[in-house]
Amino acid sequence: MAVSWGKIRAEEILAPANGRLVLGEDQMPVGGIRTDSRKIEPGELFLALKGERFDGHAFVEQALARTAAGVMVQKDWWREGKTKDRIRNSLFPNQAVIVVNDTLRALGDLAGWWRQQHRARVVSLTGSTGKTTTKEMTAAILGLGGLTLKNYGNFNNLIGLPLTLFQLDNRYRNAVLEMGMNHPGEISRLSEISNPDVGVITNVGMAHLEGVGDLEGAARAKVELVEKISTEGRVVINGDDDLLMKMAAPYGKKLVTFGLGWENTFRASKIQNRGLKGISFDLHFKKQSRSVALKVPGLQNVPNALAAAGVALCLDEPMEQVVQGLEGFSGLAGRFMVTSLPGGIVLIDDTYNANPLSIKASLESAGAMAENDGRIIVGLGEMLELGDAAISAHYDVGRRVARLGVHRFLAMGGNAPEMIRGAIDSGMTSDQANEVRGHVEMAENIMEDLRKGDLILLKGSRKMALEKVVNELQERSS
User: Fold this and answer.
1) Residue 200 DSSP label
2) What DSSP string describes 117-158?
3) In whole angstroms, how far apart are CA 205 and each of 33, 188, 396, 433?
4) What is the C-alpha to C-alpha distance for residues 38 and 35, in angstroms, rounded to an integer?
5) Where in the chain are all domains bearing CATH 3.40.1190.10?
6) Residue ranges matching CATH 3.40.1390.10 in the chain
7) Could you tell me the CA-to-CA distances from 175 to 113, 155, 194, 266 in Å, in that order?
8) Which helix (H) or strand (E) holds 237?
9) The CATH classification of domain 337-477, taken from the options 3.40.1390.20, 3.40.50.150, 3.90.190.20, 3.40.50.300
10) Could you give the residue ranges of the DSSP H alpha helices within 143-196?
11) What average pLDDT does range 218-239 have in this prediction?
12) 454 Ramachandran zone, left/alpha/beta (phi>0; psi -120 to 50)
C-alpha cells in the first residue's frame, strides 16, 4: 500500500532526504511538506530553501510557532545559526529538527522517494514550445480513465515539480508533469526526481539560449530526459525535428515518434483549418485511424495533439478515449486563445510567452486563419533569454512578419527596433511597421486602424505582459 501523509513518521524521511535528526522525536507524524512558512498547516514539515533573493531559514521559528511537525534545515545554517538555542528551548512537544547538506537537493530526493511509493503512472514533458498545451491535452485524455495529477502555473522547476509530486496519494492513476529549464542539468535532475514511465519532448528551438549557448545546446539540454529515463520507459519525441532526433539517438532508449512525416509512429493526415472552429485531422497509429476535431484553432496544436495521443497510446489507453479527450480540450488562456471583438474582428491572445519557434508557429497559424480579404495586425513584445542570438533572432522575426503580408506591425521592448528593421527591410513601409513604448500605445495604434474582418495577433515573452494590450482592446471595444 502507498504511504500517505499523516501516517508516516519523521524517521521515515531521514534516509530519502539524507538527513539527520538533531532535535525532537523521530516518531513525530508528518502531514506534508511545505516551503512557504506562511502556508504551513499544523503537522506539516517546513523545508527551508535558500535562494539568491530569499532564505527560508529566516522563517524557521515562525513555522515552528504555527505548530509545524518540524523543520528541515541546512547543516551549515544549523551550525552557525544564532537561533539554535531559542529553537531548542521553545520546541513544542515532539517537534523535529532535521539537518541536511542542501535543502533543495533534499526536496527533490524526498519527492522522488514519494513518487516511488505510489502506483501512479508518471508522464514528464519538456520542449521549447507547446509543452504546456501538450501537458493539458495529455491530462485531458488520461483524466477520462482515472484521477490525474498535473502541475499548474510555474510549478515546473526544481521547486514546483517536487511540490506537485507531494500531492500524489492513493487516488491518483496518473501524474502529468511539465519540466521547464534555463540551464543544462535541470531536465536531468527533474527527470531523476519524476522517474517517468513516459517522457515527451515536443521540439527544440531558440529558447533560453542564454543558459545553453546555442540551438545544439538547447537540444542537448532537452535530451537529458532521454539519457535519464529508465530502460523500461519510453520517450515520445518529435520525429520531424531532425536535430532532436540526432541528439536523442545515441542513448539507445525506446523512442516513439510523432509528426506529419509518414515514418512517424503517431502521425496526422488530412489536416483542415476550420478557422475559429478549430482544426481537424486524421490520427494514425499502427493500423488504427480516427478522425479528430479539435476545438482549439492553430495549426501548431496538431503536433501537440499527436504528442498527447502518443503518451496515452503508449500507456495502452483506448483510441476512443484519446479522441474524446482531445476533442474535449478547450484551450488555455494566453496560448493562442481566440476571441471575437465587435465588428467581426478576431483577436488571438498568444501572450503567455514567446521565442522564435513559437512566433513562427503563431504567425503561420494566424495567416491560415485570416479571411481572404481580411487584414492581419500583429503586435509583438521582445523575446528574452536569447543571449548572443537576440539581435539576429528579432530581425528574422520582423522579416517573417513582413513575408506574411501583415497590414500593420507594432513591436515593443528593447529589441523592438530590430524587429521593425527586419520588417522594413523585407518590404513593409515605415507607416506599417512601428515601435511602441507601452501597452496603451500599442492598443491605441491597433484601435485607430481597425476595420471589420481584421485579425489581431498579440504575442511576447512573459515579462512583456502583452495580456494588458488584450485587456485594453477588450475594454475599448465594449
Assistant:
1) E
2) TS--EEEEEE-SSSHHHHHHHHHHHHTTTS-EEE--TT--ST
3) 35, 18, 14, 26
4) 9
5) 118-328
6) 8-101
7) 15, 13, 9, 22
8) strand 234-238
9) 3.90.190.20
10) 160-165, 186-194
11) 96
12) beta
Please, are residues 135 and 150 in contact by the beta-carbon 8 Å criterion? yes
Give pLDDT, residue 213: 74
Find out whether 255 and 237 touch, Cβ atoms under 8 Å.
yes
Cell reading at 36: 512557504
| Helix, coil or strand: residue 254 | strand
Cell numbers at residue 30, please? 508528518
Q: Which CATH number does the domain 8-101 belong to among 3.40.630.30, 2.60.40.10, 3.40.605.10, 3.40.1390.10?
A: 3.40.1390.10
pLDDT in tens, 435-455: 999 999 999 999 998 999 999
- Crossing angle for the helix pair 131-142 and 301-314, nearest 10 degrees? 40
- CB contact set of 426 (below 8 Å; sequence gap of 6+): 398, 399, 402, 403
Range of weakest confidence among 153-162, 205-214, 371-380: 205-214
Contact 32, 5 (CB under 8 A): yes
Question: CA 151 from chain center: how many Å?
Answer: 9
What confidence category does residue 211 fall into, taking pLDDT thresholds of 50, 70 and 90?
low
208 — pLDDT class (breaks 50, 70, 90): low
User: What 3-state class would DSSP assign to 376?
Assistant: strand
Q: Which helix (H) or strand (E) holds 266?
A: strand 266-273
Report the distance separating Cα 403 and Cα 139, nearest Å.
37
